[in-house]
Design brief:
By secondary structure, the chain is an alpha/beta fold. About 35% of the residues lie in helices and about 25% in strands. Helix 5 runs parallel beside helix 7, helix 5 (about 180-195) packs across helix 9 and helix 6 (about 200-215) packs across helix 7 (about 235-245). The structure holds MU-OXO-diiron.
Length: about 400
């Protein structure tokens, strides 16, 4: 896809990756985009590169606007390889006057590519760079998504090149938020937040506060993935506020794997208990649901019931996968319990409870175990566990406000 003019002398020159289906553990059934932006002024400036295999497409797109060798400045907002993989080839081709990056950006670029000879121009929050008529202001956003991350703001045009923040993994021929279906857009944005930024939620809150205090009022937010926000900037900022506070609804997730359907029967009975307390619940059999879709649902869930049969003195393998992924993303403010059936040793429930405790989940009891198949009284205990988890989640929601930005 060729370049798209987003404003006078400002172009999207990114690429579409229709085929990627896994982004470091996150399922991307509709591909993704790697966005680069070209600003034509007295100093011609390229903001961000693309994933290495797409380098030629980026260069061809730029060439439809200007000879790539005329580019003066290359701004590297983020060093992760989906953006920087093409940077060594781009630098060799365009021989820029400046490679602009944060202090950690310089360090990480050297650590990745071992090119101390590049003409680094290190910027920190508040620094400005004149391009001619246009001015770029920089804002370091450490850990959103890596320590090197920063954003670049075109002051006169009020365009924020936001790097990973406010993005979506979604390949579309449309380039703006008002050209796509809003509900699908926000679903992609939520999945991206839940799987990329959730663990940095306190930093997202600080960023939102910093943007509000700075008085900048972007008319476009142009991330490095997905579409450009120009119509519903307030909507995506508000969504980031809500997601970063991890505001929960009367909603529970029952996440499980089962061997011979006994743990599944328990899951259904727990759901009945949640329903009796007015909670919506969703069952996720890990054989059929991807970890990254479950994380998206977790954004606004108050209670998590996590179950596994015991196999070979431990939990089912997909449950270990789920818990490892979930623990890294640090969901906050949840109530939960472990459950599962067993034959003779039954370690899985204890192991899941321990991991949930390590994650800071408020546990309701020590976990519910049932030997082989659940009897009527076992299922009644499951219903009661669901009711208890729902009541505790409501109590926690009322008594312990989640952190605010
Ligand atoms: Fe899109 Fe953190 O890279």
């Amino acid at each position: 896809m060729g370049p798209v003019k987003i404003k006078d002398n400002i172009y999207w020159v990114g690429v579409l990756d229709w085929d990627i289906r896994d982004f470091h553990g996150y399922s991307t059934p509709k591909g993704t985009t790697y966005n680069s932006y070209l600003v034509v002024d007295e100093k011609i400036t390229l903001f961000d590169g693309v994933k290495k295999p797409f380098k030629n497409q980026l260069i061809e797109s730029i060439a439809k606007i200007v000879d790539p060798k005329r580019i003066d400045y290359l701004v590297v907002n983020h060093v992760e390889m989906d953006h920087s993989g093409s940077i060594p080839d781009i630098v060799d081709l365009i021989e820029p006057e400046k490679v602009v990056c944060s202090p950690m950006g310089k360090k990480n670029l050297i650590d990745h590519f071992n090119r101390q000879d590049w003409p680094f121009h290190v910027v920190e929050t508040g620094d400005q760079l004149k391009l001619g008529k246009k001015t770029v202001s920089f804002l370091e956003t450490r850990m959103l998504h890596w320590p090197d991350s920063m954003m670049s703001y075109l002051t006169e045009d009020k365009i924020l090149f936001s790097s990973d923040a406010f993005g979506e993994h979604w390949a579309t021929s449309e380039r703006f938020d008002d050209q796509v279906d809003a509900s699908e857009l926000f679903a992609h944005a939520a999945k991206y937040y839940a799987n990329i930024l959730l663990l940095y939620s306190p930093l997202v809150q600080k960023l939102l506060a910093k943007v509000a205090e700075s008085g900048i009022e972007p008319v476009m937010i142009a991330p490095d993935h997905g579409v450009i926000w120009r119509k519903d900037i307030a909507g995506i900022l508000s969504a980031y506020g809500k997601w970063s506070r991890q505001e929960s609804l009367k909603k529970a997730l029952i996440i499980y794997d089962t061997m011979w359907h006994a743990t599944e029967q328990m899951a259904n009975a727990i759901g009945e208990g949640l329903r009796q307390e007015g909670f919506d619940f969703k069952l996720f059999n890990l054989k059929y649901n991807h970890r990254s879709d479950i994380m998206t649902e977790m954004l606004d869930a108050g209670a998590l019931l996590i179950g596994s049969a015991t196999i070979n003195n431990g939990m089912m393998p997909v449950m270990a996968d789920m818990l490892t992924y979930m623990k890294g993303l640090k969901p906050h403010g949840k109530v939960g319990a472990a459950f599962g059936s067993y034959g003779w040793s039954g370690e899985a429930v204890k192991q899941i409870s321990e991991t949930m405790r390590e994650m800071g989940i408020t546990l309701v009891g020590d976990g519910l175990r049932v030997k082989f198949s659940p009897k009527k009284e076992d299922l009644e205990r499951c219903v009661e566990l669901g009711r208890l988890a729902a009541r505790k989640a409501l109590e926690q929601k009322t008594a312990t406000p989640l952190p605010r930005d």
